[in-house]
Amino acid sequence: MRLADLLTASFLALLGGVVVFDAARLGIGWGTDGPQSGFFPFWLGVLMIAACAVILLQAARGAAGRAFVTRRQLGPVLKVLWPAVALVVLTQWLGLYVAAALYTGFYMRWIGRHSWLAVLAVAVLFPLATFFVFEKWFLVPMPKGPLEAWLGQ
Amino acid sequence: MGIENLILGFHVAITPYNLFVAVIGITLGTIIGVLPGLGGANGVAILLPLTFTMPPTSAIILLTSLYWGALFGGAITSVLFNIPGEPWSVATTFDGYPLARQGLGGQALTAAFTSSFVGAFFSIVLITFFAPLLAEIALKFGPPEFFAIQLLTFSSFVGLGGGNPIKSLVSILLGFILAAVGLDIVTGQLRMTFGFVDLMKGFDFIVAVIGLFGIGEILLTVEEGLSFRSARTGMNLRIVLDTWKILPRYWRTFVRGSFIGFWMGFKPGGATPASFMSYAFAKRFSKHPERFGQGELEGVVAPETAAHAAGVAAMLPMLTLGIPGSPTAAVMLGGLIIWGLQPGPLLFKERPEFVWGLIASMYTGNIIGVLMVLAFVPFFAAILRIPFAILTPVIVVVCAVGSYAVHNTMIDIWYMVIFGVVGYVFKKLDYPLAPLVLALVLGDLAENALRQSLIMSQGSLAIFVTRPIAGAITAVALLFFALPVLTPWWRRLHGPVVPGRSVS
Q1: To 5 degrees, how large is the angle CA B150–CA B156–CA B159?
Q2: Model-level pTM?
């Protein structure tokens, strides 16, 4: 827990540093007609660095405590996270609907060990329902890929 | 002066279309409230893009109904599954789940829904009368006053939020920093984009809400294994009526909970402390405090009444000042801006049909809501029996769709995943997420208020203390910021317990 705390605070302090650096470029003082663009971000960055310094001190003084995440906990978390990342990557190539079908089907088979019939039914019907609700009913377009292009959508 | 406006509002709220919208909103909201990983703020965020083409009044009715539904849905998971969907449902699980295990889940749910309804109704009545008054006062506010109120909003997270005050401060700062990324509309300069075109649009709070609360919450839930626990409920009209016969006995708890809820609720982050405070009071004044935690009906009534009174009260500052009291209210405020409405006191003058339609829809929405959840509990509870391996991908895909729909850009889905991981890490390290979201929504407004104030005063910060109203609000805000430092010092001065002040 302590290591994670130290890392997070260091990262946020670094972010504060980046903000201050950018604010300095924009000007942090008084322009011709009021505060310059960098004025507000500059003070945000300065406060951020100061607050993170306090957290770093608190964490460094405190005991290590329990682990941030145990090996037993990390397994299931990753089993949710990496397929979700895969969904986003696939969406970029294949469009949202095909990616959602593949993702849902894979997840049901891999984690749930559902029968192929159930997998097929959900993996086809769910993206289809999404398509009609968003694309047709509410007219909100989603990313589309080769399949939709082939179908003429 | 309030009554004819309210009647005008009911004319708007009781059109068949708007009633239909309310029913849809409550159904979806309850489903969202029951589903793990999806809560009020997130459900509203996901549906927001769908409302762009609707008339604003119907759109806000849809979103507020969704919110009421999510509040009711949270009670179902707390009582039947011991999963508090939202932080303010935690106190409900103390007695709700033991009741459900004793086979009294039906009674516990009836009590929870009824108390939610009573608490919400109380707050709505107060809003009806106070909102116009507050808006009238707020019309006289200038930029310094608005900035002072923003300061007060964020100081209450630091001073009253509980947890580590420095980490609350960091969350607020991070929200403001993310809000500042992109085009500075005042000077036309690009800030913190470092040459990346994708950063020019900045970060949208809707995507942040979906990632932080949606994906982050799922990651946190699955740590204990890839499944959701489930229990059964017996719920029928007989149980509802029998419970209603018992409930008037707890009228004191209802009244106390409503007042605590409203009072805590219109300050940001107030619902959670309100629910715990109401529970603690009920236990203290009860003749059988030892029964609390074992399955005492009053232990369900107390936190639910307060939490919902607070949840509704959070709408008051959003409507009158344009400053949301909760993450969900923050998302709705973002909606108002997208629909082309200027949130704040002027809304009462310029768009009375919108404001009063919304207030009237709070009455109708809550009445429809309580009847619907009472009737359809078994249906909503069945949602959690859908296997995990189907539910999880469905939730993730819905989150992705919601993120993409905001701006039709792929990068937003990536942001959602990143915000999900950030939400998971922050939750584990006790960085609160609500102030981050609020700061992200209010970032531009706060910065503009600060800039305009400084222009008015030629760069002197004294403007926040010399104007009487701004000065008073700033003073309270500074006191809140100082509370985490003052409290330990005060305790040391007066011994460990301050008599008469200790609540829990």
Answers
A1: 140
A2: 0.84
